[in-house]
Amino acid sequence: MTERVVLAYSGGLDTSVGIGWLKDATGKEVVALAVDVGQGGEDMEDIRQRALDCGAVEAVVVDAKDEFASDYLMPALKANALYQKRYPLVSALSRPVIARHLARVAKELGADSVAHGCTGKGNDQVRFEAAVAALAPELSSIAPVRDLALTRDKAIVYAEQHNLPIRQSAKNPYSIDKNVWGRAVETGFLEDPWNAPIEDLYEYTQDPAIAREADEITITFTEGIPTAIDGVAYSPLQIVEKMNELAGRHGVGRIDVVEDRLVGIKSREVYEAPAAIALIAAHEELESLTLERDLGRFKRGIESEWANLVYDGLWYSGLKRSLDVFIDDTQKYVSGEIRLSLQGGRAVVTGRRSEQSLYDFSLATYDTGDTFDQSLSKGFIEIWSLPSKISARRDLAGE
């Protein structure tokens, strides 16, 4: 029986040519797998047919949008996941769900390997292969662009020679990756970090400099998960789609960052993630109302580690699973409502309320009704500062 390889297929030039290129180089039959994570664009059935026309023995299409939103984006939201405090892991979150289906289809169809279209200098090669290794260690991974010297100029020539059904147009100067959580843009003139982004880069967001009346919305959370907008219940996927529309209209979620890649180089990236940025802002604010101080402080350190693990392709690692248990436990009281004002590229929290709130008005107020016994503070401060006082005496004595 001829060996098989399952290729993560996008429908673009590299992965379309990669079907024949893989077969020629390895002798294996190629199964194309296209996974819908909300990237939009072409109809998935058209992509499936193109894979067959390019020589795939089978082409599998998976609608993973709801799975992606529920099982990958919601954990990221509960973790307030921002790599380098700014990037909401747009591409990093989609790779483990694609890899999961790569491993699943490879097992079901008896393939001994999987393949992807990544280069040897990016993060995604690590994310795909580390995830597959964790899910199906018996499978090997092949990267035609990295391992089989498939360059873009060779891909164009190969497509022309074999009459592959790939529409050729003027080369887009940017490399773009997108899903329902956001959109990533790199290369072209952006490779010079001094060059400012231009408006043509953006698709998910409108220009925040254009004057618009603010939109005010109320987001309901249940144990850390957004469940409704303005009282209307939505699924996780619908919440993200709706927030992309609402926040994107005001230019929320534009990010321009010099990023530290896993492979050791710095890369200039432009992202737009309106839903991600607005929802994280709302979720963090609700946590400030419902989490006790020490738990909130400690969680912020865990959030950074969680984001680093996911960025580095370790979604299926033991440490990531253990951190998930901790984060899930912190969310049992993170229920309530957050009011957001969307305008001028910003999502600003203007109100918060929760039946699980730790905010006590009678303790916080400075007006009549104050129940805080201020006389207790003097002794508290003396005990709290005692270690500093004792060490200061020692330091002064040694001078």
UniProtKB/TrEMBL annotation:
Binding site for L-citrulline: Y87, N123, R127, S175, E259, Y271
Superkingdom of origin: Bacteria
CDD domains, per the entry: ASS
EC top class named in words: ligase
UniProt-annotated binding residues for L-aspartate: T119, N123, D124
NCBIfam families from the UniProt entry: argG, PRK00509.1
The protein's name in its UniProt record: Argininosuccinate synthase
Organism: Galbitalea soli
Annotated gene: argG
